[in-house]
Specification:
single chain; alpha+beta; three-stranded antiparallel β-sheet
Length: about 70
């Protein structure tokens, strides 16, 4: 893949990588219907995928996303 990336885009990608290195195991990201959610893990430390529990949703982040698969 030969995609042109601006300096600003590179900086943002690097910032995300830095965040990923210190991301707590108690949080995870869920992409649903174009909304990126910060979720808390379940009581047993599991990521609740099926029937995502809205009580575990902490906040949403306004970054364009799509939850599909390649």
């Amino acid at each position: 893949m030969n995609v042109q990336v601006s300096n600003e885009e590179r900086e943002v990608i690097e910032a995300l990588k830095k965040i990923a290195k210190r991301w707590p195991k108690t949080l995870w990201l869920f992409s649903g219907s174009g909304t990126l959610w910060v979720m808390k893990v379940g009581p047993n430390g599991e990521r609740v995928y099926e029937g995502v529990d809205p009580d575990l949703a902490i906040d949403s982040i306004d970054i364009p996303n799509e939850g599909g698969d390649w």
